[in-house]
């Protein structure tokens, strides 16, 4: 039961809806208009309207069983009938650009009012969050435009470099890694750091459309897209829905719909100037969450830098006034981080307020403390894990509970991701150093969190509470918990090493990989050197060439390189399926052959034969005395692409066998991973090795396997 501006309780739903409307959709201010008579830069890319193929791909990605939009048409209708609807949707969507019109019926939305979790008082309107349910056809079109905008923004570097969240190839943990690495580097040079966390009131809903369009033009977005977005945002209306009540229709004068596919990319354009204005600090942005990091010899210097970023003529406060984005000054957070001083440090005096330092601040879901020990976050992660396991306990009754396999799936898919979120930041994999018996790194934290897995294993197996933990893990088919943490961190380390040069964390990863520092090691140092994974050892190879001509050129380069070449093939002839591999060794005229007859075609497929051919290729390589460089060529694209699959697929046990044999080959010959390559070669193009493999595969179909 919210209150109005004078503290009176409002009991009727219509009155509540008016209060919520005023809180959610503030009117545009008079002083926040964009500048006039501006010369915009030329477009950074050429505009292309949505194609039929793009529309079809977007529709196929729609989620099933989602809340109905105002037109009451579920996503399943479009997904199941896209072949019928596509000839109409394509011209309709393209007409919105050519005719410069956006149908008014697509601008009517339902705004569901939800409680923000964990708020102590729900009497105020700010304790509620609006979620927009948009017209389904309009949402499909918005998704197409979003796809184009995101791709071109990344390709042409249109967004602020500090924008890490909400972008492809970026995660929230990237921001945390960059934050921790910056602070630890400052400590290593006997400096201190201060972090100011900003909070914006109703960030999406207070955005000014005209200012947004101005920012997009200034950053090189074509006028066709900008005009389309203008028509999309003008004249919008909504109903507020809460407590089984639907309000009268309200007009939306400003803001970006939360729930629209465009919302993230549009707000990134909207507040890019805020991140670019931070000249003396490192600015990290995750959509509307912003952190300003300043380093210096003392806290006076860091606070001066933060004050400059906030209060100078082009600073954050001026951005707030120009963009009608009011800061929640009472929610500002300040961390003074020093490796030597135990105190919280001084307060930050800004022109508009004084920010008191705190010992802990929650940023992007992680509790950061002023010493970066992460002890409070470990306790927070333990609480989250135990809470979920206690919720599952109600489903694990002996008589009426769900099967143990479902309970295991719930633990792996729900509890583990929530508990081990950002584990690569706040946990360090357990390691036993050479010539030492004691285990090092985050031993106590990992043992503490392992209690959650033990409780889950008891629910999965139904065992007695006195059962040994190792026995529980074995019967529940769960990894030992420290190995589970190892798996999560190893995956994160591998991803960090593949970041492109344009990523803000790329240079930090490269520097951390060069040597292991003795003091104030960041999580990047710990991860890269624990697993011996370095960016220089990672090579991105496209296994399938875009065209046959390029594949043939690539094959000629491999032939001229002088390494071992293996060609594989699978065949189905006369109701028999067979596979083969032939090996060409430089300096030798002998061609080594392996054949394998899989069986009748009623039980086996050519695809399986192609994968078996790759397995045979590895067996041929294992027989060689020395392998420095080798390439395996197959004329089947599906089998090559399957080597990169992480999720189970048909015949995946053969892919697992292939990976097992490849690892055995690495151990046998101690070669670097980059020196073994799988690639595609087109068939029947007079490639000698491929033609020989095809011939041997046909022999194998008749039951002639190699001894």
Automatic annotation (TrEMBL):
This is RNA-directed DNA polymerase from mobile element jockey. PANTHER family: ENDONUCLEASE_EXONUCLEASE_PHOSPHATASE DOMAIN-CONTAINING PROTEIN-RELATED (PTHR33481:SF1), REVERSE TRANSCRIPTASE (PTHR33481). Keywords: Nucleotidyltransferase, RNA-directed DNA polymerase, Transferase. Residues 560-702 form the RNase H type-1 domain. Residues 95-368 form the Reverse transcriptase domain. GO terms for molecular function: nucleic acid binding; RNA-directed DNA polymerase activity; RNA-DNA hybrid ribonuclease activity. CDD domains: Rnase_HI_RT_non_LTR (cd09276), RT_nLTR_like (cd01650). SUPFAM superfamilies: Ribonuclease H-like.
